[in-house]
Structure formats: C-alpha cells, structure tokens
Amino acid sequence: MHFPAKGRTLFLIVLFAAGSVHAQQASDDRRVTTSGLMSSDDRLLVMSAALGRQVSRSKPDCSHLVHEIYSRAGFPYRYSSSSDLYSGISEFQRLTTPQVGDLIVWPGHVGIIVSPAQHSFYSSLRSGVGVDFYDSSYWRGRGKPRFYRYVKRTLMADSSKRYHSLEDIGAEEKADSTAVLQPTNFSITDTLVVDSARLGPEQIRDAFLKLSNDYGESLRAQDLSKLRVPLVVFDQVNVERLKVKGQKGTVDIRIDGPLTFSDGQLDQKKRHDRQRWTINHHYQTTWQLGLPNAVIYISRDDAARLFAQQFARITDGTHDDSPGLKLEKAELARTLAVLLAE
Fold this sequence. Notes:
Helix content: 25-40%
Number of strands: 15
Radius of gyration: 23 Å
Strand content: 25-35%
Distance between the termini: 22 Å
Structural class: alpha+beta
C-alpha cells in the first residue's frame, strides 16, 4: 500500500493521533542515544522536512532523496549510495530498534522511518515519492533491512566543555530535548525600527522579517499552548504602497498566511491581512513604523520548527495522558499538518 504525495498530510495526522511518533524504545535504543545521536526533536524535524518536501516533476532516486531531506533538516552528511549506507558510514550508527526519522536500508534501497509501530517508511518508490510498509511481502522479499541513526558530531565541537564520558554527552542532549517549557510571557513590540538612510520597500520588508525571526527565537523555550497573543503564520509579506512626506508617512502592507494560533487553538482560516502602518522619521537614519498591537507574526518555516519541537516534548513519555494533554496533542498535530501541507 503506497501513500502518494497528496496523502502525506492526512497520513501525518493519523500518525500523530496514534501516538506512534515516540513509541517506547527498547533498552539498546536508550543505550545508543547516550552516544551523541539524534534526539527525538531532531528526528521529528527530519520527518517534517520529508513530509513537507515540495513535489517536483522529476523523481529523485532513493539515496539522493534521503540525502536532500537530511540536509534540509540541518543534518548534513557526505552523499552515499544505498549500498554504502547498508554497509555503514561514519555519519550513521546502526541500531536494532528504529524510531521516526531513522534510516531503513536494504542493499540497493534506502528510506526514512515514518512509524515503527506501523512499519512504514518514506522513500522514492516505483509509483513516486511517498510512504510504504516494510513488512509487506515485496519488502520482506528484499531481505532483512538495517536501521541507522544520524550521529551528531557537533556535540564535541565546543572546546569550552569537557566531557568525561559518552554518558555526559547523552545527558546534555536529553536535557536539551526535554527542556521545561516556560510560561509564555515576553515583550511584544508595537514599533518596527528601520535603520537606513533611505526608507524603501526592501528595507521595511527586511526589518519585518528580522523581527519575525527574533520572535521565533524567543518562542523556542515557550509553551505555545499558553500563548494568549495571536500567533499569525505567514508565507508572504509584500510592501504595496509607501508614502513619505517630510518626517511622516504611511506604508500599506499585505501579509498572507495559512493559519492563526492562540489560546491553544488553531484557526485554519487563511489570512490575507492588509494593514496601513504609520511612519515617523527619527534622527538621520532611524525610522519607526507603528505595528498592530498584540500580534506575533512568524514565518511558516519557523512555526513548523517550533510546533514540531513542542509536539516532541509533550510526547516523550514523561507526561501524563490526561484528556487535556490529549486535546493539546491533537491541536498541535492539526497545526503541524496545516504547516506541512503543500
């Protein structure tokens, strides 16, 4: 059974709802995670990169597809054929119990695990790029696959830290991936500052994107379910009309995006916001633009990363399974599905 590209979003919802993203790990998997391998957050980012991949007319071969997805998710390695991956390369460590985002490899074929509970994987298949099941008769006929997990070499890059054992590295990685979320309480600006001798559409757009990126960084340790200010996800921001006379002016902005998230709830209605911001010229190279009050704008890519990280945190097995938490998981899953839709 094969899921084509159009069915990926639906499959993602089913996958999350089934709770199979963080299936219980066997003892050898707990052991290998102490050697600086990918965390649960990392593996979810790989899956997000896979399921959010744009469809192209040309169908890549399996090894190039996997290489592209890992690189896009921020985990590069030297390109290797599926046969080389099966034999083993230094960037991956073999394991017996796979989790979402790990590699599944046969001699001559490679894919990325989607759900170990459902024995599904994502790859370039005969019918196109999509999801299939490795316990089907066809794949069982290819022989017994091997499973590999990416090795995060960057953990050893900081010379200011001294590790006494591999367990020290694993403890730091675990602490990072299961960090306690903080109450969402941070400053939201109502003024966009542009430092430029000349104010133009490009300068305004660049300043807006930088502010959005700063919000994304600030939200990394925040509990998005407690966010009381509307978080508006955007795909495009366009400066449509700019008028400046003397020290004052106005600018018309259009912001298009797929969703709004606030009070732990998803509003899936697409946004097409048209706004007029006031402009005040302060000093020689400083411009101040008035923004709508109490709204956070964030790019789709940053939003997908933030919601994937939060979903990973609350499904790591350390939280209860209360009805409230189930609802939160479901809402996060819906939000991720919209963000990853093509």
